[in-house]
Design a protein that fits this description.
This protein is of the alpha+beta class. It contains 13 helices and 26 strands.
């Protein structure tokens, strides 16, 4: 009977018939189960290894030893060529390993190691059918839409002591159901992998790999780039993007391979504190004029902290100042931008613009301690530079605290009293407030209704069946103020700390003005990053964020909501803005000793000596 059952299952290939004789069905099932279990465990372990390799270094720079190849001497004056997928220069050429990390940055404020998503969500999948050298790999996928830019970025800072002579850039992608939007401008569509190169002299270049829509199989594109002999790479920013398409795309593998001297350390972030590029030359040549300066009244005592409202405004929206003064009776420091048109008669036009501004300001009553500046642009190239204007207004304020608020926001009735109550609360506990940012909840009216005069009235407007107001940017950019936690705020009787941050958070704040208070970084002219970068630096400097329970600001229905960078800029201009963001975060790490730079000076000097 046992033998009969053994013969019955011997329908397997001839190579296994011998093993079948004498084995019961039950034994065979167990053997098959064990074999399947072992296969599953091996696959699972490999998937976990892939995930661990991509996400084990939660701090930037922990694991940058990707390029473990011997240091070689290369003559950059000779021509490079690409043969059989490898760079060749005589018999001594060596190809480094891929610099790209597979992990996705989960929105911490000070991390640049891995893929960063500015707006649209990308998904990381484990695909166990791709690649020749691995069973499983992480695949990045996104659903493309015709009216949006779907992009994901990775920033690779280049060690200043390394000379990269050439790059090998490749990407593999598939998009079986992707289709082109027929109404979209064919010249501006993108389904590409792009390496954005920035040199130490400030010039830029890029390598672009374009893919075909509707490809079921994996399509691999590869291109070589010879770095000019007179240039040194400062950074490489890799972008995966789709624009003007509809459907899903998948990027299976992206590689950036450097060739050059000591390429093993090509992506090591320098932690030597350098001079901040805080101020820009963007406003160089502009004309500055103080229009109003009101003598301040006696300063408040320790028990009565004074607050200046710091703001900036374009000449076309100067009426916002008048509205703010109706609700704010404390000092105000404001900068007004007057655009130029670049005409030969700019000087004559400046005269009438001055008269126009002065006429508008003469109708406003400015409280003691107020200072109003005008910045006259002398050319069309001098754009509305918000952070320069903010810093100008900030520097002219002389009170204990500054309320950093954009023109058009109206402080709540009793704002100063509500703020002072919070200050008194913490001063009684002996808390040092020099590194506290008091968050101002902000709202926008969506209907032509009377503005609320109390928190209860505001709650009724926001939470009613047909809301007359909403939290600011709730519909256009919900992450901008999500961390303030408005549900908690409406219930709060006292101040509370911000617990969760994301890299899109841009609250309006009141901060104490000291000699070391961070100002706005002027490499960002406008857009959300102009203020987000300031919040990032406050966090890097160790500021604690506390939400004011009985003070807020609100806009009227006509107030324009600023668009995100992806909407406001062209793609390559937007990419340049994001490169500046990465550079800014790198400087925060260097100057505030964060991430890989979080070590003692002695350890850092030893590391530098070892590198030499």
């Amino acid at each position: 009977m046992r033998r009969g059952r053994a013969n019955w299952i011997c329908f397997l290939p001839e190579c296994m018939i011998i093993a079948c004789h004498g084995i019961s069905i039950k034994s065979f099932v167990w053997i098959f189960f064990l074999f399947a279990l072992i296969s599953f465990v091996v696959t699972y372990v490999h998937v976990m290894i892939v995930l661990e390799m991509s996400g084990n270094d939660l701090q930037f720079g922990v694991n940058y030893d990707y390029l473990d190849v011997p240091s070689i001497n290369l003559d950059r004056s000779k021509d490079w060529s690409l043969k059989n997928g490898k760079f060749r220069l005589g018999d001594d050429a060596r190809e480094g390993k891929n610099m790209i990390a597979t992990k996705i940055i989960e929105s911490p404020l000070t991390e640049i190691h891995g893929w960063w998503m500015p707006n649209v969500k990308w998904t990381a999948e484990i695909n166990c059918k791709t690649g020749l050298s691995h069973i499983c790999r992480k695949v990045l996928s996104a659903k493309c839409e015709e009216d949006a830019v779907h992009s994901i970025y990775q920033f690779l800072p280049i060690n200043p002591d390394v000379s990269v002579a050439a790059l090998l850039f490749s990407a593999t992608s598939s998009s079986p159901e992707l289709r082109i939007d027929q109404d979209y401008d064919k010249e501006s569509i993108l389904y590409s992998a792009i390496a954005y190169l920035k040199y130490t002299d400030g010039t830029t270049d890029h390598i672009r790999l374009d893919f075909s829509a509707g490809s079921y199989s994996e399509e691999r594109m590869i291109e070589e780039k010879i770095i000019p002999t007179e240039k040194l790479l400062h950074s490489i920013t890799v972008v995966l993007v789709c624009k003007g398409f509809h459907g899903f795309v998948k990027f299976h593998e992206t590689t950036v391979t450097p060739i050059g001297n000591a390429v093993r350390d090509a992506t090591t972030l320098s932690c030597i504190k350098g001079e901040r590029s805080h101020y820009s030359n963007h406003t160089k040549g502009s004309k500055l004029e103080k229009l109003i300066s009101v003598k301040p009244s006696a300063k408040g005592t320790l028990f009565e902290p004074t607050v200046s409202l710091v703001t900036q405004v374009n000449m076309d929206h100067i009426e916002h100042l008048h509205s703010m003064l109706s609700y704010w009776k404390q000092p105000i420091s404001a900068s007004i931008f007057i655009p130029g048109d670049g005409s030969p008669k700019e000087g004559q036009k400046e005269d009438w613009k001055r008269l126009y501004i002065q006429k508008k300001l003469s109708r406003m009553k400015f409280p003691p301690g107020s200072n109003i500046f005008a910045v006259y642009a002398q050319s069309l190239q001098q754009e509305y530079h918000q952070n320069f204007l903010r810093n100008l207004a900030f520097s002219s304020s002389s009170d204990d605290y500054v309320l950093l608020l954009d023109a058009g926001f109206l402080p709540s009735p009793g704002f100063l009293k509500g703020f002072q109550e919070t200050v008194f609360h913490y001063e009684d506990t002996g808390k040092d407030l020099s590194k506290v940012a008091f968050v101002v909840p902000v709202f926008q009216m969506v209907k032509e209704l009377p503005l609320p005069n109390s928190k209860d009235e505001l709650r009724a407007l926001v939470t009613g069946e047909d809301p007359g107001a909403i939290s600011f940017k709730r519909l256009t950019d919900p992450d901008a103020h999500r961390s303030t936690d408005y549900r908690h705020w409406f219930r709060a009787k006292g101040p509370y700390p911000v617990e969760v941050f994301n890299d899109k958070y841009e609250p309006y704040v009141v901060i104490k003005k000291t000699a070391t208070t961070p100002q706005f970084d002027e490499r960002f002219h406008d857009g959300p990053l102009a203020r987000i970068s300031h919040i990032m630096e406050l966090l890097a400097a160790g500021y604690e964020f506390i939400v004011l329970p009985n003070a807020w600001a609100i806009t009227e229905p006509s107030f324009p909501t600023a668009s995100s960078e992806s909407q406001a800029y062209g793609f390559f201009t937007q990419t340049d803005v994001y490169v500046r963001r990465f550079e800014f975060i790198s400087e925060l790490m260097q100057n505030y000793k964060l991430g890989p730079c979080e070590q003692t000076e002695d350890t850092m000097e030893d590391s530098i000596d070892d590198a030499r």
